[in-house]
Amino acid sequence: MNRRKVAAFAAHLLLVAFAANLHCAPTRQLFALLQNGAGVHGRRPETDDYTVEIEKDRQETEQFLRSDKSPLLLTGRFNIAEGFSTIGSDPGSTIRLPPRAPKRVGTLHRGGHEISFEVQTQTAISLNGKPLTGSVTLRISDAPDPTDRISFDDFKFGIRPAGEGFELYLADAQSPYRGKFKGTTWFPVDRTYRVTGELIAYKDPKTVDVPYTDGTFKRSTASGELVFRIAGQTLKLVAYAVPPGKNLFVMFRDQTTGKETYHGGRYMEAEIAEGGKVTLDFNKASNPYCAYTPYASCPVPPKENRLAIAIRAGETYHRD
Question: Which CATH class for the 71-179 domain?
């Protein structure tokens, strides 16, 4: 499974399902650099079927992050209070947009768990791609379920539950985060980091509240511990169920974290085979979207998932 599917669960998740529905103008850039080995640290790996598979996955990650569905288009996250909230570029707006947006786009009204939106501009507004006038009660749900999307000019927003409240996520086709994105970088492909382990399932799967980087918690199911060996050491990672599939979501830190890789850890998927065996491919370990935009909300790896060794495989990270 590629990074987009792993991240769709990881941002559960709040961000990705909204970002995956964005349809703003794309900024496509050079993927030939990756094909020629750019963006990979150290020696250029030998080409074989496995390496080709990994490089293809990495190119798809790069393409997605530069695309019109990229989470890097997110440029704002706003709490929605009870009562009325105005939206626009006017300085007095509750939710203030960039100056090029209409002065008053509309008004949200929150009454408990119900939120409506009233159009208050001559600018063309659409709801899920269809023209909108007047007022509408918005469909709001947790990711990965769809939520209503309001679009106008370069902008798009959707609303998600956040703890006991709600947050509005704003996307902008002219996002500076996509504009300054320099591409992903990776360790060379190394087969020794593709290992077979065993799932030691909990007798009863544990329901846990996973902390997120925005201070909220999301309820998830911990399925058990993955036990495997790398560099002569036996290691363990807590794994989480990924509905509706049978594979498992893993988030971890290791001895490269905060140095060669992102300080918030990395994510990957464990593929379940017959007899409780699992395949962990650390060459596919990728950064959460929090590495690229401050408006993403990402799950935090549990303390049990800090490995005592350096995993020099997968995505790297360099702060500008």
Answer: mainly beta
> Rounded CA gap, 71 and 85, in Å?
25
Per-domain boundaries in the chain: 71-179, 182-305
The answer to whether residues 165 and 79 touch, using CB atoms and an 8 Å cutoff, is yes
The helix (H) or strand (E) run that includes residue 5 is helix 3-10
Q: How confident is the model at residue 141 (pLDDT cuts 50, 70, 90)?
A: confident
- DSSP for 241-259, written as a single string: E-TTSSSEEEEEB-TTBTT
- Residue 184 per-residue DSSP state: -
In the structure, what pLDDT confidence band is assigned to residue 163 with cuts at 50, 70 and 90?
confident
- The CA distances from residue 132 to 112, 123, 129, 262, in Å, are 24, 11, 9, 41
CA distance 68 to 261: 26
Answering whether pTM is above 0.90, one says no
Q: Using DSSP bridges, classify how beta strands 217-230 and 233-241 pair: parallel, antiparallel or unpaired.
A: antiparallel
